[in-house]
Amino acid sequence: MTDLPDRVLIIDDHPVVLYGLRFLFEQDARYIICGEAADSLSARTQAELLQPDFVILDLVLGGRDGIELLQDLTAIVPSARLLVYSSQNEWRFARRTIQAGAKGYVAKSEGLAVVARALDIIASGDTFISEAVRQRLVDAFQTDIVDPQAASIDQLSNRELQVLRMIGEGSSSRDIADALELSIKTVGTYCERIKVKLQLESLRDLEELARDHVLGRT
């Protein structure tokens, strides 16, 4: 008797990514796509309806908090193995997703072949973190030992960490507000919270630290 393929739910709002994942699974008879979702609401609905074996999801869907969605999915389909496939090449996000219930984390910069390998590994019961993120995790651990400010970034909430990264990438307050579907005032509030938590005196200090963070110096 032939084993049935494992059913995969894909949660991503980038057409190019969806096309690539469809192509990947067309070449591998062990898996079949049972559904797709491009936003948090439909992701929750489809997960409950389809009860997939695997879920592949991006952390950023229309600016929403992907960690919160991840936690919801682990409650909706506790038997599913969740793999984060994200453009957030950030070890702190990787660690937080694993803590929230994900079984693997792959940076989109590493390509589809890594997704296939990750699924094989988490299917066996192990956890997978892609090489690019794992190396940054090791480097960051060494940095945190000698740099208290780098360690203090762990105090930031998921949203604050997201705002910090976008500032470091050169986004303006308007850019951040539009991307995360927030008001400019709310973005300013997040910036003030970050400054307090990291003991920064000015917006310029925040921008400099954010750039260092994106470059992997914190």
- What is the rounded Rg? 18 Å
CATH class of the largest domain: Alpha Beta
How much of the residues is beta strand, in percent? 15-25%
CATH architecture field of the largest domain: 3-Layer(aba) Sandwich
Which consecutive residue ranges, at least 5 long each, have pLDDT under 50?
none
What's the total count of β strands?
A: 8
Number of helices: 11
Query: Order of SSEs, N→C?
Result: EHEHEEEHEHEHEHHHHHH
User: Which homologous superfamily in CATH is the superfamily of the largest domain?
Assistant: Response regulator
Strand order of the largest sheet: 2-1-3-6-7-8
Write structural notes for this entry.
The protein has 218 residues and is α/β, with parallel strands linked by helices. The chain has two domains: 6-133, 3-Layer(aba) Sandwich (Rossmann fold), CATH 3.40.50.2300; 147-214, Arc Repressor Mutant, subunit A (Orthogonal Bundle). It is built from eleven helices and eight strands. The chain has helices at residues 15-26, 40-50, 66-76, 91-100, 112-123, 131-146, 148-152, 158-168, 173-180, 184-197, 203-214, and strands at 6-11, 31-37, 54-57, 60-61, 64-65, 81-86, 104-107, 128-129. A six-stranded parallel beta sheet has the order 2-1-3-6-7-8, sandwiched between helices. Strands 4-5 form a two-stranded antiparallel sheet. Helix 4 (91-100) links the parallel strand 6 (81-86) and strand 7. The longest helix has 16 residues, at 131-146. The protein is globular and about 60 Å long. It starts with 5 loop residues before the first strand and ends with a helix. 36% of the residues are buried. The model has no long low-confidence stretch (mean pLDDT 86).
